Amino acid sequence: MLKTSVLKPTISMRIISSTVAIAALSALAGCQTLPSKSANISTSTVDSNPLTARMPVMDRQGRIAYVDEQGTGAAKISTLYSIRPDGSDRQLIDQINGYIYAPAWSADGQRLAYSKQAPRQNPKIYIYDRKNNTQSLIVNAEGSNMSASFSPDGQKLLYSSTVGGNADIYEMRLNDGNTKQLTTLSSTEVQPSYASDGKSFVYTSDKVRAGRPSIYRYDFATGNAIPMPTSGYVASPQLSADGQQLAYLNGRKAAVMTLATRQTIDLAETGLDEPARLSPSGQYAVYPMRSSQVSSQGTRNIGSLVIRSLSGNTSYSINSDAGGMVRSPIWGR
User: Fold this and answer.
1) How far apart are CA 317 and CA 297, in angstroms?
2) Which family does it belong to (predicted)?
């Protein structure tokens, strides 16, 4: 039985500006039926809440998956949740004494891939099925298996693994487990993410300078990779559904670039290397934050999700009263 920690979301409106003090978040078997979903008792107000009423339907009726971390070291407990964009209808997906990394939705929003690492074990990749409320162990190779990404048709999975020694990118066919290694360099290739047409994917590599990552785009037809128009220390790329925007980590800032103009919006300095992630419409971005709350009992850190409109600088946050650190949000349909 999974242990559920209580997390009561609260919502606050604010305007993001460069003067906002920001501290933030994280960096670079078989099939099993899960316990019943844990959800807030309150009814979803996703269609009437003024914070989400102006969102496209695909955004406001979608779900945001995220990781809540409690404790440190051997006492670390990571819980994977999903919520509506207005903070309602929180549902528990998985929990472990250890770490959960990098959830990623399928294009139809019915499956969620993520990595899970128990103490003294390597990260393994699981897929959660919303319809059946099950999780399946998908990648159990030796080494670190991370950053899964569904192909647009849901039939394949990209991921990075150190099974061969270096971190390289692999593609698995989900119906039979057939796996192909796509990168073979001596450098580090990680964080793959499919383009919506399935013809290419973006990823992070330090092949030019060790420890200095850049973002590349791999073309399936040619097997060639070209650098994306970013500069400096960049990582964790995600393309918008229309292919016109790139969400990523720009130095220590969650950022979104319009590829045609190369105009970049730096949304926030996350502090612990968390990127922005785009809504299904590409009109909003979500990223995690950590802030300090002072009370009579002292100062404690509060984790939250920030949802920001890319057509203006208005945003709102969904806060964790439990004091857990919120990481790796991803917005699906």
Assistant:
1) 24
2) Belongs to the TolB family.
Whole-angstrom distance, CA of residue 25 vs CA of residue 268? 11
Host H or E run for residue 320: strand 314-320
Q: Could you state, in order of their start, the residue ranges of all structural domains in the chain?
A: 9-332
Nearby residues of 194 by Cβ (< 8 Å), 6 or more positions away: 149, 150, 151, 152, 158, 200, 201
Contact 129, 111 (CB under 8 A): yes
Any idea what DSSP says for residue 23? Answer: B
The confidence band for 4, taking pLDDT boundaries of 50, 70 and 90, is: very low
- Per-residue pLDDT at 10: 35
Which of the residue ranges 1-10, 70-79, 295-304 has the most confident prediction, judged by mean pLDDT?
A: 70-79
Q: Which among 275, 276, 242 has a CA at the least distance from the CA of 260?
A: 242
**Integer Cα distance of 43 and 41 in angstroms:** 6
Residue 232, C-beta contacts closer than 8 angstroms, at least 6 positions apart: 250, 251
Q: What is the largest CA-CA distance in the chain?
A: 62
Catalogue the E-assigned strands of 71-131: 77-83, 91-96, 99-105, 111-117, 124-129
9-332 topology per CATH: Neuraminidase (2.120.10)
pTM of the predicted structure, to 2 decimals: 0.85
Tell me which long-range contacts 92-99 makes (C-beta under 8 A, separation of at least 24). Answer: 92/2, 92/4, 92/35, 92/37, 92/38, 92/39, 93/34, 93/37, 93/65, 93/128, 93/135, 94/2, 94/34, 94/126, 94/128, 94/135, 95/2, 95/3, 95/4, 99/69, 99/123
pLDDT of residue 39: 38
pLDDT tens-digit series, residues 85-116: 999 999 999 999 999 999 999 999 999 999 99
- The partner residues of 122 in beta bridges, in order of sequence, read none
Q: How far apart are CA 12 and CA 33, in angstroms?
A: 36
Q: CA 198, CA 157: separation in Å to the nearest integer?
A: 11
